[in-house]
Amino acid sequence: MKLGHWIVAALAFLFGRRQKHNAEEVAEELADDGGRGPEDRDPETGRLVPPGSPDRAAENVVLLLLVLAMLAGAGFIVVYAMYKAPVLPNELLGICMGVALVSIGAALTIVGKRLVVTEELEEDYPTADPEEQAKIVETVRDSGSRFTRKRLLLTAGAGAGGALGLAALTPVLSLGPIWDTAPLERTPWYRGRRIVDDKGRPIAAADIEQKTFYDGFAEGWSKEDLSSLLIIIRLDPSELHLPAGRSGWAPRGILAYSKICTHAGCAIELYRKPTFPTVEPEPAFVCPCHYSTFNPADGAQVIFGPAGRPLPQLPVMIDGAGNLRSAGNFSARVGPSWWGVRFRPSTEHE
Amino acid sequence: MAVRDPLADPVRFIDERTAAAPLLRKSLRYLFPDHWSFLLGEVALYCFVVLIATGTYLALFYDPSNAHTVYHGAYAPLDGRPMSGAYYSVLNLSLSTQAGLLMRQTHHWAADVFIAAMVVHLMRVFFTGAFRKPRELTWLIGLGLLTISLLEGYLGYSLIDDLLSGIGLAIGYGVGLSIPIIGGPVIQGIFGAPFPGKTEFFSRMYIMHVFILPALLATLIAVHLALIALRHHTQFKESKRTTQKRIVGAPMFPAQMPRSLGLMFLVAGLLFLLGGLVQINPIWQWGPFEPWLSENGAQPDWYLGWLIGALRLMPSFDVTVGNYTLIPNPFWGGVVFPGFVFTLLGAFPWIERKLSGDRRVHNLADRPRDAPNRTAFGVMLLSWVFLIFMFGAADRILVLWGLSYNIQLNLFRVGIWLVPGILFFVTRRWCMALQAADRLEHTREQAEERMRERMRAPATRS
Amino acid sequence: MRRVAPIAGACALFALSAILGAAPAAAQPPSGIVRPTTEPPKPTLELGAQLFAGNCASCHGIAGSGITKPRPGAGNLTGEGPPLRGVGALAPDFYLRSGYMPLGNPYEQPEANRVLLTDKEIRSLVSYVASLGAGPGIPHPKPSHGDISEGQELFTSTCAGCHQLEGRGGFVTGARVPPLQNLPAKRIAEAVRIGPYLMPKFSKSQISDSQLNSIIRYVQSTNAPDNRGGWSIGNLGPIPEGLVVWWIAIPLILFFCLLVARRRRSQ
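YS: structure for the whole thing
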């Protein structure tokens, strides 16, 4: 405690000195109390802005800087004209423009500090004016003397204004289907819809290998639709312990989940697959935005990170040709949640 | 009358048509108190000027379209890739337009520095108590400017539609949806359809970014400046002449104008030098956005880093009832956290009034040490936000220095509460120690002065 | 909004970096490489067997049979490691030449370390491990045959989730993802086919050899990406940009303010 006190005191000593006042300076300032105001003339010379001594050295520097700015400005034009776009050196352009601006800035600073007179003037701070306030109130109040039913008229006026305001805002509703959140819940998946790859080709179940991941899309559906996007992996069927009611959702261990993180809507594009079980026992999906981590073996429960619910699972089946198809809809809503959305089905299979 | 005077003639011309000479004369002699920290707001203003200038240029080339076309342009690694018209146009602007890259980079740097300057300005105003009566409205408008600027910046880089910005939009969509009750409708209204939205969505962002929000910013800046001019700046207690009633300073003309203009050119020059010499957001390297793509460690621009930190720090839970979600997780980090910080800052002038019982008009700015409780509170709030901000970069810290993400997560989950608490007391203590040091210094000076007089006294007598 | 004590923050970061800078190197075996007293002048199967027994068998078991449960009593077999029968020349070549193996502690993530074995020793070990069972050989990618645009697209959809778009590395739950700069084409191809540590394993049916060439071409292009626009500050995006704002731009602006504001009394 004592040590801390000393450290603080030492710091205070080091930093505390900066603001100290020179006693003589204070005394000097005391002397000219009640100094010149901004509209007053200089008491000695009678001028509005007192004269100052010329400073030719500063003038020379300003001239030099202005010439430099001129050269840099011309340089910009030359660089622009000499090179064509793909090789146009951004650095040179930036230096020319920057140097021109900085030179003018420096010149003006020197003008401000060395070449114009710096007066130190004073005046009163503006203050509130109760008399004026009273006059405003009186003016408004007196103006309403001819009204007999003030309150009624004010209410009617507020009503008219409010109705007009609301009416003017109503077209905003056309922006989206605002009250209808059904589009957020729509998915392209039904039993039998084919799962295709990013080129639109069907995915053969035999091609799905363990220890890697695949993108999947709904056939004949926009790839931009979040509910169409799948991440597909294969695990050893013996490793699976999916939630009850999902038997048959993962034929030959092939699992399909929504690719969109249930936290904030980024695409899951990390599949960590441990080479050797000792170090990191579980294969998992990771969202690269906030690192929510999901365990695909048990229905993509959250095992790390901020996501609040599992990734929705899509039941998969293998058709006669050996290709992947969906066997129904997702186990829950796709993507980030919103107020009142059902995050798990009341019964399995909707 | 016959003599043509290049100065008097225009002045006469204007006054005869406007009768504004008294007002002009008064404005020329408007007083600026002298302190470097009073220029920080001006820096932000000059960044805004650069933003308007460069942004106008960019708008001449930008195409707010999310319809896909196949790229065949200067950048080989993206040749033959389908991409939105928006991204295509910014690629062309950056890589095949004369001076386009310089303008884009300068615009982006100006945006980053704009908000940084506003934050430093806000800190100055907070720690010197310059928000107190009669300047609470100026303070509130300043906070409004900052909030709008955050949104404006976010829209700015989202318009490009590269992979990084698309991820940012997806997160914005998720955070928007998470707002209780109104989230779904509001997001449906803005996007028009589930993410990535209807074709109109880019036009909506564009008009917001280039017209509605800048117009709002310009209006609020004008009001902010008008309020300052009406009430004048605060000033520090520098001498006996500076008081609550009298302002001491240099007039706008001639002393202040060349300095302020000089600062404007210096700031603009710095931004153009950055735009020319330091790469910012090399969008060609990120590639086009598609909803099924993402990348590791996607980050927003610095001024939204505190939000990604908060989103990542949140433990995993949604507020649910039965089978229904009520409040999804991103609401806490993405909405409640910034909402709380801004509300607290906005209410602070009144909170302080309530706590200190001080309702007087203050034209003198405090030195931070002279208001230990306020300074300590400010340090506490800032360090809290700063630590959460820092956690947003935990993944990079891992890559650079190998410090485990889980260890960092646990450290920060404790640290964001512990460190600000400790800093509150340390700062308070430090302020008091500084005050004590000031008093000591004052006493010493007085004693020295007395000694000097005593030494002088016998000399004059002899 | 943020930034309470930038200087303190910087100091903390530098201190952290000083402490942690050496961390990855600690993954190397503490005792160094066990070598036979006389090594033959050329790589031989026998040398490989001797090196394996001395440096690898403690985790990978006798003759690469693997150890799934450590048995502290039995011989010196204290580690845990996967069996190596049937991994072919592919895996040992990758793990030894990248410096991932030998690994000091089987619970640690293998990192790209200094390679402790000579080329001759590596060849011997590779041929020994390959002789344990039939397996894939060392790939021979030709990145110059690849198409950089295809490579960018494939890298974005399969690799960038972990490795970042410009291959600058990143984080995946439980592990650090290595950056990909300055790697020989062979190493990249091997990693894609093996899937070391937590990385998925991509077979030829998922990523063909010609696609792999394209990916490698793109990855190698990230050594020196198109960095138009000036100093690239790491090709990481917004974090270094924020650092430039707060460490370069704002200090300069404060300097400008000080410069412009400090007043000299006239005359």
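YS: worth flagging: Confidence is low (pLDDT under 50) at residues 16-32 of chain A.
IM: good catch. Also The longest strand of chain A covers residues 214-218.
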